[in-house]
Known about the structure:
Layout: H1 3-13, E1 24-25, E2 30-31, E3 40-41, H2 44-59, H3 63-66, H4 72-80, E4 91-93, H5 97-112, E5 121-125, H6 130-142, E6 146-150, H7 155-158, E7 163-169, H8 181-190, E8 194-198, E9 217-220, E10 235-238, H9 282-291, H10 300-321, E11 328-329, E12 341-345, H11 349-358, E13 361-362, E14 364-366, E15 370-374, H12 382-396
Parallel strand pairs: 2-13, 5-6, 5-7, 7-8, 8-9
Antiparallel strand pairs: 1-3, 4-10, 9-10, 11-12, 12-15, 14-15
Helix pairs in contact: 1-12, 2-9, 4-9, 5-6, 10-12
Amino acid sequence: MSELDFKARELDAGDELANLRSRFVLDDVVYLDGNSLGALPAAVPGRVEDVVRRQWGSLRIRSWDESGWWTAPERIGDRIAPLVGAAAGQIVVGDSTSVNVFKALVGAVRLAGGPEAGRNEVVVDATTFPTDGYIAESAARMTGCTLRAVTPAEVPGALSGRTAVVLLNHVDYRTGRLHDLPGLTAAVHAAGAVAVWDLCHSAGALPVGLDAHGVDLAVGCTYKYLNGGPGSPAYLYVRREHQDRFDSPLPGWNSHAEPFGMRPSYAPAPGALRGRVGTPDILSMLALEAALEVWDGVSVEAVRAKSLALTDFFLECVSSYVDEGRVECVTPLAHAERGSQVALRYEDAGEVMKRLIERGVVGDFRHPDVLRFGFTPLYVGFADVERAARVLGETLG
C-alpha cells in the first residue's frame, strides 16, 4: 500500500460525510463530473414513479391541489434557500438558468432606473459562461443600455454612475476560481448599481450568503451540486426588499396576482412569486424536490470543509503521481479563491479525458486544453481522489 493510499484510507475513516454516499446510486466509477451533472439520489426513481403513476395517472388534474403541484415552485425554492444562505420566501424554482438570467438582468435594469435615470450600462463578467454573455448582450440592447465586459478583478474600477447592473459568476466554470461575492457586491452597491450573481458552480458546494452579503438578485441551476437531474429547473432569488419593485420582463399567468382570474391586464403576484412565468414543469420539478432530501441534516459548512480537503488531497496526489511540468494547475491554490473543482491544463486534454473515462475516472474537458475535475463532497471520497490522480499519472505516462 502506497503512502497516499494509506492517507486516503485514514481520511475516509475520519470523514463525517462518508455515510451520505449511500443516498446516491453509484458504481465503481470515480465520478468527478458532478459540477456538470450530479449523481442520481436514490430517492428519486421511486418519487418520480409515484408522480407519474399515482399523482398524474390516478389523481390527474386533482394533483394541482391535492399533490401540491401548484405550490411546488416556491416550496422547493424554500428547500434551496438554506443552501445559498437565504431566508424563505425569496426563491422561486422554474425555467432554465438562461431564462432566469434574462429575468434578473432586465429586472435589475428596471430596479436601477435604467437609461431614464442615467443608468445605461450593463457590466458582465468577461470570463463568464457563454450563455450569460449572450443574454446580457440581448438584455442590454432591449433596455437601451450598452454592454461592458470586464474581468471580475476589474469590476471595481469599471463602476460608475452609469452602471445599472453587474452580472458575475460566483465560481468560474473553467478554472474553478471563487470570486469575492461579499466584496464585489459591496462595490456594486457603493456605485448605486444592482448586483446579480450566477451560482451555478457554487450552490451546494460552498456557503454563499445571499442575505448576509446583500445580494440583490441571483440565479442558479440545480443539476450540478444539487443533483436535480438533467435539465432540472433553475431558480431565481429576489431579495425581499426588492420584491415589490421587481418588474419581470416575462409576466405570465402563473405570476399574476389572480392567475385564474384571466384578467386582460397584468397585476404581479406579491413576493418572489412574480418570478414565475408559465405552467411549472412538474415532473422534473418534483424529481428535484426528492433529490434535495439528500441535504437533510447536512451542513453546507461541513461540505465546504470536505471540498477543500478533497481538492487539497487531489493536488497533493497529482504532484506525486504526475511528473513535474506535465500539467499546469489553473485553479487557485488559496482556499478563499477556490471553488469545488480542479482544472489542469494539458495540450491534448480532450484525448486524455477520453482515456481516463475508459479507465473509470470521469471528469470533463473544456476547450481547448483544460481537464476539469469536480468534487461533490456528498458522494466523493478520498480513495476516489487518490485513484483518479494515480490513473491520470499512468495515462500521461
